[in-house]
Amino acid sequence: MSPLDRFHPLNLVRRSQQPEYSILPNAEDESYYVDAEKSSFDSRGSSATSSSRPSSDSQQDAIRSPSGRRRRRPNGPGIYKLPNVIVRYMCFAVIFAIVVFIGSLVHMSWASSTALQLGGNGRPRPPPQWESFQFLRRYYGGIRTLVECKENIPEYPQQDEEAEATNSTDTSANATAHGIHRNVKLPPSKPFNPYPDYSSEAYLSEYVNVRECFLDANSTIPVPKVHAYPGIPSGMPDPIFGSYDLLGLREDVCFERFGRLGPYGYGYNDTHGSTETDLDAELAEDGSGWRENAKVDFRGIRWAEVQRRCAMANSHRFETRKGVKRDALLDMGVAGKRLSREATALGDGTSTSREKRNITQAQYNFSGDATEGEGKKKLPRTAFVIRTWSDYKYRKDHILFLRAVISELSLLSGGEYTVHFLVHVKDDNLPIWADEKIYQQTLRDALPEEFWGLGLLWTERQMNLIYAGLHESFHHDLPVHGAYRGLFMAMQYFAHKHPEYEYLWHWEMDIRYIGHFYHFLDRVSRWAKEQPRKGLWERNSRFYIPAVHGSWEDFKQMVRVQSEMETGSQNSWASLADNDPRFPSSGVDSGVNKPVWGPLRPEDDEPLDPDSDPKPPTSYEKDKYQWGIGEEADLITFNPLFNPDGTSWSLADDVTGYNTTRGLPPRRAAILTSTRLSRRLLLTMHNETFRRRHSMFTEMWPASIALHHGFKAVFVPHPVYIDRRWPLSYLASVFDYASSTGSGRRSVFGGMEHSFRGVSWYYNAEFAGKLWMRWMGARVGGAGGEDEGVRGEGRMCLRGALLHPVK
């Protein structure tokens, strides 16, 4: 080949296709690779600078391998290959993390949409305005600071709102001015007697004589009397809702725990069936007269027998009623003698058959001498039904409370009230209806021994059988026959089976009354009886705040005007709720609202018995506040009867069996079920439930039936206390802002119910339990205790007040 052939194009192509190496270097010769790479780098660098043409043969030959094998480069030093198992696990971990991440995104999206539907804005809400208000202190004043009620300067409320807002001084100075010191001589307490003078000529000219009741069968142990102190602790606040004077309640006396509960066993050891407490330190200088009552050994008391003896002795005082009705569910067609035996089986099992028959007559027939007291007024009987359940745990203060109820309502009144326990058996599978022994054992296990014979059992399955056919919507995931949604079903059936009672009080175990039970219930019933029907439903829906509304007549006129004009109470504090998403301005009712006058029936639902419903004697405009005066109330409540329509109350639409194609039926509701119901109202509820398959949520049912049938319902403005110094105008804007019927998005019933935590009466009232525990001498939040009563102002002394809940 000539030298010029070397540059021939064909030769260049053939030469480029020839293998680069003929012999591969040894793998062990690491220096070769280093030198080869370095020379390759140098050659590329030099060719780039000189020419793009191929290098000369000498340069190509220098990098050619003497061997024809292909070059194989081993892994570089320090590089480690992960095992496949570890790589696989790492992949699984990455996939799992991705799945969790996607799931969290989905959950956050769902939570955000739910919060948006509920009106949430994703930011934590600030604490309620009222939590920043100053606490009141003079509720805890003691008996060493007693002053006459008319001389008392209440810590709260004050009419001067500027002084109210700036008064942050310790109002205990007011108490100091009246001489708080250790050596103050205590005034003697006095027996508290709210009963009529049964032996007076005035009473006997109108009613028949009353026979005294005793705790024993030999009539030797009298019923002990409650004691109260004249006056109230200096600086004690006035109630923010309601009024003592309006209802005729005593506001010039106060009750401390020994005078109130000492007659029923508080203050002595268990050797007399009483509760333990140390009296030495507290009572060393106590001049109170409650200890004048003889000690009663409550271990041998059987309240059922005591109550029945009292009812028999005074049966001539009351209207004659039929006895207990035959119960086909329990009787199954057996002769009436067996019914009598089963009715008497509520006793403690120690009486003879003859005694049991007498007991049955006393409790269910009440048949006395019809000719005795002829021509004089006879009284209707009233049942006081306490709701409890089979596994309820009774503390010592529960026992004291129950002894007080029976003594004050039944025994000392000459049998006007009869106390029953309506015991809910939560275990539906317990065969109490199949075996009488199981029924009796369950009943005895459910109540303390001294109250055996006063209880009646009921179950939800029993109510499902009696009131069959109700549409089951499972509102709030709860059954319609359950104790939450259908609590009054048991009361309806109780009234149906006990025609001897004209009125029935429905009570709860977590209620306490600091005061005398008969005094309170008697005055409440009398006041409700004298209320005119004109404007009654409108007044029922509002809180009466004396410090804001003035006298009761002023309040009546204000409600009348606002009902006609339908205006809310506007003030500077109302703007606090303007930015609250829970209470939009558009939710406030507007327009003229027609006052309730007579029955307000549901649309498209045929009335059950319209001819028997009360009818107004004249038009609303012509009535001069006369219709209803002197008429007993069919329903008495201790919270306002508000219209739940348009409120944020979550149970407003719990309606069963009604035609709702054109909207929900007219409704009213009263929070808490402690009420008095007439036999007429309960039987109407009973018929509506089993005939028409109608029902509503427990706290709506009695009030709504009263509204539909034109029955008289009354909210009683009883005294309610508050624990903080609320500005009065702000308080009115919160508790009394809604429309004349209590409806509207700004109603306190619903989203604003947290405002009740500082009052003494509501389902979530935290102040109630604290006040009761301090009154009982316990330490709460580092304050109080029995030692404080010795070193400080003495034992707490409070005016009569309802407290709920006390857990």
TrEMBL record:
The chain crosses the membrane at residues 89-110. Residues 42-58 have a biased composition (Low complexity). Residues 35-77, 570-622 are annotated as: Disordered. This is Uncharacterized protein. The keyword Membrane applies. The keyword Transferase does not apply. It comes from the Eukaryota. Keywords: Membrane, Transmembrane, Transmembrane helix. It comes from Trichoglossum hirsutum.
